[in-house]
Every structure is written in structure tokens, then in C-alpha cells.
From TrEMBL:
Residues 1-20 form the signal peptide. Transmembrane segments: none annotated. This is CUB domain-containing protein. SMART domains: CUB. Keywords: Coiled coil, Disulfide bond, Repeat, Signal. It holds the Pfam family CUB. Residues 136-249 form the CUB domain. Residues 61-110 form a coiled coil.
């Protein structure tokens, strides 16, 4: 009987102990499972955040690639446009340069032709002037004078346009015993601003006349052997200027 009681008590103790151990182990497992679930949730959240960052970075990388490609295409278009512009400018410059050379060549031919014509005209006038004294000598009672060609004067650049801000002088001396006769053959200057002044002296002291515009001045004869001319232009408009023949005359 005592043995049965001892066995009973031992059995109860073991059952209680085993039950306690089992309960404690279950609680520990539950705690560990809860901690594991929390850690897994944290890891999942971190993974989702990391995944979002990766996606955002990929989107930014795609945008940057698109911008790079756009800028590259824009640069290529700009380079092609500038190349076309440079080609157009080069063609335009070459065309204008060729036109300028052709104009220059034509102008040189015109100037050479004009110079030859002017030389021929001067030779003809000189020949006529040399004949004039003989004619006057034969009809001395009618003309009572002799006249011979002395020189031709003209504005700088004539028959082309004169330049701005000119101040040109001519001092004419036909020698002792003669007087100066001035005859303008062409006259075109800017009215009131580009002026020819004629003096009956060796310098600008005895004004005979002041002329501008496109009216041909009348012939003028000095009282002595000298005549003085000035031509001034402003800084605005240019014309072809003037030309004039100078004769030396004697009166008997």
C-alpha cells in the first residue's frame, strides 16, 4: 500500500513537472515565433523600400538617358544647321567676290578707255589751240587776241565720284604777258556743300565766283597771269565733280 502511494505521488510529481515543462516550452516557442514574424515583417518592409528606391533610380536613369539622347540629337541638328549656314555664307561670299572682281575689271577697262579718250581729246584741243593764233593773226582786226591751250584740271577721281572731306587747291600761272581763261566743261557737285571757288590772284584773296550744284559756271578771265581755285567737300554725299580747260590769252 505504501508503495502504491509512493508511486502515485511520484507519478503526480512527474506529470506536474512534465506539464510545467511543456507549458513553458510552448510559451517560449510562441514568443520566438512572434519575434520571427516581426523580423520577417521588418525585412519585408525594408525590401519593399529598397525595391521602391531601385525602381525610382531606374526611372531616373531612363529619364537621364532620354535627356542625353535628346541633347545629342539637338546637338547634331545644330551642327548640321550651322554647317549649312557656313556653306551658304561661303557660296554667297564667293559669288560677291567674283562679282566684285568682274566689276573691278570692267571699271578698269572703262577707266583705260576713258583715259585714252581724254588723252585724244587733249591732243585734239592742243592742236586746235595751236591753230587758233594763226587764225586770229589772219583776222587780227576782228578778234584782236590770241589764245592757246594751257592745261586741264579736274576734281580728284573725275569722272568717278570724289571723296569726302576734300580740300584741294590749284594755282594757275600762264606766264608773263598772258591772262588766264577758265572754261568749265562738266560740273556736278553737292549744292551748297561741295564748293568750287575761283580767285583772280595767286592765292585765295580776290574771289571771282563760288559754284556748286549742277549748273555749268560761265567762262572766266583773270586780270593777270594768275588764277587760284579751291574745291572743298563735306562728309556726306559725293558726285562726279568737275573738269575745266585752262587757256592762256593775250590782248593786243
Amino acid at each position: 500500500m505504501q508503495l502504491v502511494l509512493v508511486i502515485f505521488f511520484v507519478s503526480c510529481y512527474c506529470t506536474k513537472y512534465v506539464s510545467g515543462v511543456t507549458t513553458q516550452s510552448s510559451e517560449n516557442v510562441t514568443v520566438k515565433e512572434k519575434d520571427t514574424i516581426e523580423e520577417v515583417n521588418v525585412i519585408k518592409n525594408n525590401y519593399h523600400e529598397l525595391l521602391k528606391r531601385v525602381i525610382n533610380n531606374e526611372i531616373e536613369i531612363v529619364d537621364l538617358k532620354n535627356q542625353k539622347q535628346y541633347l545629342k540629337n539637338d546637338l547634331e541638328n545644330t551642327k548640321r544647321y550651322m554647317t549649312c549656314q557656313m556653306e551658304d555664307i561661303k557660296d554667297f561670299t564667293e559669288e560677291k567676290y567674283n562679282n566684285l572682281n568682274e566689276t573691278k575689271a570692267a571699271l578698269m577697262k572703262t577707266m583705260i578707255s576713258f583715259s585714252q579718250s581724254l588723252k585724244l581729246l587733249n591732243e585734239t584741243m592742243q592742236e586746235l589751240s595751236y591753230r587758233q593764233p594763226e587764225k586770229c593773226e589772219e583776222n587780227k582786226t576782228e578778234c584782236n587776241c590770241t589764245e592757246s591751250f594751257h592745261e586741264t584740271i579736274a576734281s580728284p577721281g573725275y569722272p568717278l565720284e570724289y571723296s569726302n572731306n576734300l580740300a584741294k587747291n590749284w594755282s594757275i600761272d600762264v606766264g608773263s604777258g598772258y591772262r588766264v581763261e577758265l572754261q568749265f566743261t562738266n560740273f556736278t557737285t553737292e549744292l551748297k556743300y561741295d564748293v568750287v571757288m575761283v580767285y583772280d590772284a595767286v592765292d585765295a584773296t580776290d574771289l571771282m565766283g563760288s559754284f556748286s550744284g549742277d549748273d555749268l559756271p560761265p567762262p572766266m578771265i583773270s586780270t593777270g597771269r594768275y588764277m587760284f581755285l579751291t574745291f572743298t567737300s563735306d562728309n556726306n554725299v559725293q558726285y562726279t565733280g568737275f573738269s575745266a580747260n585752262v587757256y592762256k590769252i593775250t590782248s593786243t
